[in-house]
């Protein structure tokens, strides 16, 4: 079964809370699920929608077309109509469907005759409650499961709220008549399994799964990995990392007045030996660049989560694009090397939270964890993940009296100390310095410490023992080069088109040079990215000298319309 449910309404009209119930219900029944949330920059009354992509086959991918829509007003229905499949189900307050129908014939207003309308005259201001339970009856979900869900969802509210919702759903299950006036091509049970005219029969398919979203995942996993300080200025789509840290309550945090204060406070936390992380988006990251230069020079470990959105400048701040690839690769002035990670699946949203903190501590460098709007706010179901070992690397418990914070070692990595340890004191300066941190303009030392900052990251993949990329369907001669959560939809595409494979880039910097040997075996690489200029294509083509592979065709699939890649976008590759 593949089912796409859209819940849409004005900002502030209970869209998110309705999604929490629907998604949470399917998670408890064991279904696989990912979501896509789209919302206007207007804080109030802009049309928001949440698409919930549900599967009982351990598959996750995005499609632009909708099977069932819960519309909370006529404007939301108007904007949803172009995305509805033929025969799709529209669940709506009757007054809004009638208001919509009054405009049919005008531009952008299409007839509803091709859809199944499940409407109800609702006088209560909480439309979502009634529409939600019509959906539950349409899907033929057992009433006892729904009543149990109501108890959980509304447990924190008054008992009268629980009783009220129970009464509403029991009445709908008892009296509401499900009618299908239009033949539908969406998933149905067989005629012999159809119950009282229902097209669906949603039951438990697997053990209950956990429902989470990416920003929540990276916050929780960083906290499990001994994160000790977090700072942020709220900025879409990174804001909820701060929300989750505050909610947890175990990590020292600062909601600073701007991103300059955010980055500098994290640097000083790092100076004391604490694990520090910040999170922001494009123009907030721009304000952090001076502090990041300081972190490079003074060798402060710090993790920066950079959640991309459409730009430049303020851009369209609540929508999806990959505008900041070049920015992440070159985040500040000066000549230096650093680490840029780009999680590509749900497991890595946890795993990279842990790994980024370990790598920052080990190499005493900024580590940038790239994400984007679509991934940052995407919800999904998953099973529990195992804890990972925390590695603080070389921290001296008893530093010598002649402690050198920036000692030149064979590995080019200097031992650290925690503040207030005996003999711990040292100078951390933004100037070039000697092994003690004292400012210097000595030409020999300048060369040595420039080499130190670069050489500690040499042979990165050999030292770490993993690859900076992943290949799916290695026998294919045409490879899609992708990053981030597009992999899910791309994997679904290649399942039906095995002439294509995937190269999934997980570390943009240092770039794993072994990738060139893999590409030399191919006929074509197709770079898939959400920007106009092809930032990933330009970077990898240049770094790996791909234009000098004579037989290799280099092409691309780019999208910059504010929305993520859907399965339909990939289908253009085979037309």
Q: Which features characterize this protein?
A:
Pyruvate-ferredoxin Oxidoreductase, domain 3; 20 helices; Rossmann fold; seven-stranded mixed beta sheet; alpha/beta; 20 strands; single chain; 575 residues; six-stranded mixed beta sheet
Q: How would you characterize this protein structure?
A:
The structure is a single chain. The chain is of the alpha/beta class. It has three domains: 2-208, Pyruvate-ferredoxin Oxidoreductase, domain 3, CATH 3.40.920.10; 211-382, 3-Layer(aba) Sandwich (Rossmann fold), CATH 3.40.50; 464-574, Rossmann fold. It contains 20 helices and 20 strands. The chain has helices spanning 15-28, 74-80, 94-101, 127-138, 143-153, 159-175, 214-224, 239-248, 259-271, 282-287, 289-298, 325-329, 346-363, 373-376, 443-455, 460-464, 486-496, 515-519, 535-543, 567-570; strands at residues 2-10, 32-39, 47-55, 66-71, 84-93, 116-120, 210-213, 229-232, 252-255, 276-280, 302-308, 339-341, 366-372, 379-382, 469-472, 478-482, 500-505, 507-509, 524-529, 553-558. It has a seven-stranded mixed β-sheet, with helices on both faces. A six-stranded mixed β-sheet has the order 2-3-1-4-5-6, with helices on both faces. Helix 2 (74-80) links the parallel strand 4 and strand 5. Helix 2 packs across helix 3. The protein starts with a strand and ends in a 5-residue tail after the last helix. Residues 185-198 have low confidence and may be disordered.
- Indicate the percent of residues in helices: 25-40%
Main beta-sheet strand count, sense and barrel state: 7 strands, mixed
Q: Compute the gyration radius: what is it?
A: 26 Å
Average pLDDT over all residues: 91
CATH architectural name of the largest domain? 3-Layer(aba) Sandwich
Q: How much beta, percentage-wise? A: 15-25%
Widest sheet: strand ordering: 9-8-10-11-13-12-18
**Basic shape:** globular
- Terminal residue distance: 26 Å
Task: Specify the structural class.
Answer: alpha/beta
Uncertain stretches of 5 or more adjacent residues = 185-198
Instruction: Supply the number of helical segments.
Output: 20
What is the CATH top level name of the largest domain? Answer: Alpha Beta
DSSP strand count = 20
Fold-level CATH name of the largest domain: Pyruvate-ferredoxin Oxidoreductase, domain 3
């Amino acid at each position: 079964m593949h089912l796409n449910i859209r819940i849409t309404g004005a900002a502030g009209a209970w869209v998110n809370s309705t999604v929490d119930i629907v998604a949470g219900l399917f998670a408890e029944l064991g279904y696989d699920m990912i979501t896509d949330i789209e919302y206007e920059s207007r804080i109030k009354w802009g049309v928001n929608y949440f698409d919930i992509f549900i599967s009982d086959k351990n598959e996750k991918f995005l499609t632009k077309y909708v099977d069932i829509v819960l519309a909370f007003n006529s404007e939301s229905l108007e904007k949803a109509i172009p995305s509805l499949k033929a025969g799709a189900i529209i669940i709506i307050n009757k007054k809004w469907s009638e208001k919509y129908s009054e405009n049919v014939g005008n531009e952008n207003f299409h007839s509803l005759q091709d859809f199944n309308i499940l409407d109800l005259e609702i006088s209560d201001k909480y439309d979502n409650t009634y529409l939600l339970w019509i959906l539950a009856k349409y899907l033929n979900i057992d009433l006892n499961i729904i009543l149990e869900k109501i108890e959980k969802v509304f447990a924190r509210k008054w008992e009268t709220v629980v009783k009220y919702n129970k009464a509403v759903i029991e009445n709908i299950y008892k009296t509401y008549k499900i009618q299908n006036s239009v033949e539908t091509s969406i998933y149905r049970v067989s005629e012999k399994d159809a119950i009282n005219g229902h097209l669906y029969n949603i039951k438990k398919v697997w053990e209950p799964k956990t429902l989470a979203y990416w920003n929540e995942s990276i916050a929780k996993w960083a906290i499990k990995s001994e994160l000790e300080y977090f700072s942020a200025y709220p900025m879409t789509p990174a804001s909820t990392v701060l929300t989750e840290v505050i909610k947890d309550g175990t990590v020292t945090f600062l909601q600073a007045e701007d991103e300059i204060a955010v980055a500098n406070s994290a640097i000083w936390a790092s100076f004391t030996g604490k694990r520090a992380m910040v999170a922001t988006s494009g123009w907030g990251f721009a304000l952090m660049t001076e502090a990041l230069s300081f972190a490079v020079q003074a060798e402060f470990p710090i993790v920066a989560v950079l959640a991309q959105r459409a730009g430049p400048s303020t851009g369209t701040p609540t929508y999806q694009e990959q505008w900041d690839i070049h920015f992440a690769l070159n985040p500040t002035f000066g000549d230096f090397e650093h680490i840029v990670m780009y999680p590509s699946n749900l497991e890595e949203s946890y795993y990279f939270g842990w790994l980024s903190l370990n790598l920052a501590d080990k190499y005493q460098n900024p580590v940038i964890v790239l994400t984007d709007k679509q991934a940052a706010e995407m919800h999904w179901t998953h099973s529990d993940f195992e804890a990972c070992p925390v590695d603080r690397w070389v921290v001296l418990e008893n530093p010598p009296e002649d402690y050198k914070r920036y000692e030149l070692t064979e590995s080019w990595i200097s031992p650290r100390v925690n503040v207030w340890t005996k003999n711990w004191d040292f100078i951390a300066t933004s100037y070039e310095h000697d092994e003690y941190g004292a400012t210097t303009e000595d030409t020999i030392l300048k060369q040595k410490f420039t080499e130190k900052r670069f050489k500690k990251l040499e042979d990165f993949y050999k030292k770490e023992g993993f690859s900076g990329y992943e290949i799916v369907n290695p026998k294919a001669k045409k490879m899609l080069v992708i990053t981030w959560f597009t992999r899910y939809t791309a994997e679904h595409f290649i399942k039906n088109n095995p002439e294509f494979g995937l190269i999934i880039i997980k570390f943009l910097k240092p770039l794993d040079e072994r990738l060139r040997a893999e590409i030399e075996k191919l006929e074509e690489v197709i770079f898939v990215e959400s920007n106009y200029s092809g930032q990933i294509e330009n970077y990898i083509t240049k770094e790996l000298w791909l234009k000098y592979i004579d037989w290799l065709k280099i092409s691309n699939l780019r999208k910059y319309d504010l929305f993520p890649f859907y399965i339909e976008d990939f289908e253009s590759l085979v037309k």
